[in-house]
Amino acid sequence: MCKHTVLELSVNNHPGVMSHICGLFARRAYNVEGIACMPINGGGKSRIWLLVDADERLDQMIKQVDKLHDVLGVDRHDGGHEVFEKMTEFVS
Amino acid sequence: MELSGAEIIIKLLERQGIETIAGIPGGANLPLYDALSQSEQIRHVLTRHEQGAGFIAQGMARVTGEPAVFFATSGPGATNTLTAIADAKLDSIPVICITGQVPLSMIGTDAFQEVDTYGLSVPITKHNYLVRSVEELLRVIPEAFCVAASGRPGPVVIDVPKDVQCAMMEIDSWPEPGMREEGPELIDAEVRRAAAMINRAKKPILYLGGGVIQSGSANEALLLAEKGSIPSALTLMGLGVVPHDHPLNLGMLGMHAARYTNMALEKCDLLVAVGVRFDDRATGKVAEFCPDAKIIHVDIDPSELDKIKTSHASITGDVADSLKALLPQIEKTERTEWLNEISQLKQSNPMIVEGAEDPVAPYGVVLKTAELAEDDAIVCTDVGQHQMRTAQVYPFRHPRQWLTSGGLGTMGFGMPAAIGAALAAPDRQVICFSGDGSIMMNIQDLATAMENNVNVKIVLTNNNALGLVRQQQDLFYGKRYFASNYEYAVDFVKIAEGFGMRTYDLGLSENPAETLAEALAFDGPAFIHVPLSPDEPVYPMVPPGAANSEMIGGKADV
């Protein structure tokens, strides 16, 4: 079982952003276990949390995510994030 | 003044300095074409296939280093551009594709000629846009130029629905044109560390690629090589960075390198990788690439660092800035011992060029053409044996002299890219080496070459086969030639004549060298046919997946 980690992304908020991010993971066969997204700053930007496996490809994935034009910043939370702890309550 | 979205796009492109746009009109981009027809600055080049338009734009961008633009309509127009866009992505070429789209209200209804251009182009662009209002154009168009040209360059797609092209908007002032941004600030400690490693190394090699050309720093790379007496291997994309006859030039590395090039890399103790991405065709089996070497990697794209090979030191930054920062810290050295070792390797394992003197032999025709061509002639190729032979032996002397599809390896690239090169540099000679397999993939745009009377010389080496495929079947599939020989031989000379081209057939000529000279001296598009045997492999060759030390063929003693 792989250790999970959480990536917290600040992104521009428009209809194509999710497709850019999810496509990046999908075409590298890198599974996204959990995803949450909320608009911030009145809707011009969004924050996205991704729950992903922390395997040896993760550093390269983060660099690739960071390269996306609409991604403004990436933070990594190896200790997890309470967003997913709260969401777990809905599926348990 | 009140302008339509289409007029705004054309005005913004004019403000970017665009003078030539290749493309094809259709239902969903007719407003754009109507606006283009009124432009006094921009010339339109009507192609016969949208892929051709994409490669014409690439040819312009590769020669000038500036973003080039092409147009296509929605649906099939857009899908036809995809190969040219993916090709630009893999070779980091700044092109901007502006596609028409069905009106916003009809998106998602399976409207006539509707396709999800945005979705299709996500994985093959640096960035892409679906413009949803006329106001957005004022931000998107300049931003697209900035994105395409900044950092590691790449293609951008802008999908513009027809109603956005038709919507009217009052314009008071124009945004500034989008320009290339400065590279990131260098970290001094990274530069110092790299310089110290270079100064300490006994057997360093420079590994120079397309990034050196993109950043316009071939001169700095050469100065670095000369100051530190560092032999330099070039990638396919880096050919021209170091003049072919420079004593420190090791030529192209990798799958079809000269033996001494790959052998020198085996022996180096420091690999200084600049503007390269450790492509598998260059490195061979990665685990055995430069086994004794520490690695310094210099690149503007942080995701390239440590992607394939973990480096011992790296500089994240524009290659030009990085080389300029490195140069004063490099000690002037003679490195006599290492250079002697290299010249011994060159002597005992030279590049064997068979038929070099014969103008109708596979290598000879490349060399004879080079001898007759102008020093700064632009050389394009398609993909296959002719491409590798040209890369191996053409005496390149200048950056941006060599246009080839490196990363994607797209057959059909050469001839339209040559048209683009000729449009961007009308005073220079443009030569396109092609093969019979490749030329057929975009032959329709010979009509575009004629229509625009571009000074392109097409040298078609015709073995009536897919030569590199056949060569792999020969070497690795028990000589079971399947689907690699054409069973029907078309008459290429007649085809070219059908397009109205001036043709020359070296196979029928009494004096092929003279015929070739006559063809190259002709002012305008010309087609030179060179029949070849299919049993002429490109050597040396490293089998796919093998280490670069496992070269087949090209030995001096056989």
In words, what does this structure look like?
The complex is a heterodimer of chains A (92) and B (558). Chain A is an alpha+beta fold and 92 residues long. Chain A has 3 helices and 4 strands, in the order E-H-E-E-H-E-H. In chain A, a hairpin with a 4-residue loop joins strand 2 (32-40) and strand 3 (45-53). Chain A is globular and about 35 Å long. The two termini of chain A are 20 Å apart. The model of chain A has no long low-confidence stretch (mean pLDDT 93). Chain B folds into 3 domains: 2-170, Thiamin diphosphate (ThDP)-binding fold, Pyr/PP domains (Rossmann fold), CATH 3.40.50.970; 188-348, 3-Layer(aba) Sandwich (Rossmann fold); 362-531, Rossmann fold. The model of chain B has no long low-confidence stretch (mean pLDDT 97). The chains are: A alpha+beta (92), B alpha/beta (558).
- What share of residues are in beta strands of chain B? 15-25%
Q: What structural class do the secondary elements of chain A suggest?
A: alpha+beta
- From N to C, what is the helix and strand string of chain A? EHEEHEH
User: What's the β-strand tally of chain B?
Assistant: 20
Termini Cα gap of chain B: 75 Å
Subunit arrangement of the protein: heterodimer
Strand-residue proportion of chain A: 35-45%
Shape descriptor of chain A reads globular
Rg on CA atoms of chain B, Å: 24 Å
Low-confidence stretches of chain B: none
For this structure, what is the CATH class of the largest domain in chain B? Alpha Beta
Number of strands of chain A: 4
| Mean pLDDT reading of chain A | 93
Structural class of chain B: alpha/beta
CATH class categorisation of chain A: Alpha Beta
Query: CATH H-level name of chain A... which superfamily?
Result: ACT domain
Number of helices of chain B: 22
How does the overall form of chain B come out from the CA principal axes? globular
